[in-house]
């Protein structure tokens, strides 16, 4: 899943160029990097809060059942829900159907711009 993100991001750069006429690769890649950092930090903080609320103690020999249930939920239930949400978003992802048209339009625009230049 992680490898697909960069391909989808490149496709959205091309789509944004076609849709707005502005090529903003830097903004897209910067926003994705910021999103990764914020998402990772918030996810770690949320996991820590959940574990703390359920009585987890890393130094204890035995943790309460609520802490064990929290660990199971964080490792089993949360990823299942997250990947289900991603699958739902991908059902409505329409760029794959339009991408060949977008590429052809951009290539035609590049050709028109290149053929009108005088050296």
Give a short summary of the structure:
Helices cover 82% and strands 0% of the residues. It has 119 residues and is an all-alpha fold.
Sequence-ordered SSE layout with sheet pairings:
Elements: H1 2-20, H2 25-53, H3 65-91, H4 95-116
Throw out a few tags for this protein.
119 residues, mainly alpha, 4 helices, elongated
3D structure, described in words:
82% of the residues lie in helices and 0% in strands. The protein is mostly helical. The radius of gyration is 22 Å and the shape is elongated. The longest helix is centred in the N-terminal third of the chain and has 29 residues, at 25-53. It has one domain.
Determine Rg (CA atoms, Å).
22 Å
- Report the sheet with the most strands, covering strand number, pairing sense and barrel closure: none
Shape: elongated
Kindly name the structural category.
mainly alpha
Write down the overall mean pLDDT.
88
Helical coverage, percent range: over 70%
Query: What is the strand content?
Result: under 5%
> How many distinct folded domains?
1
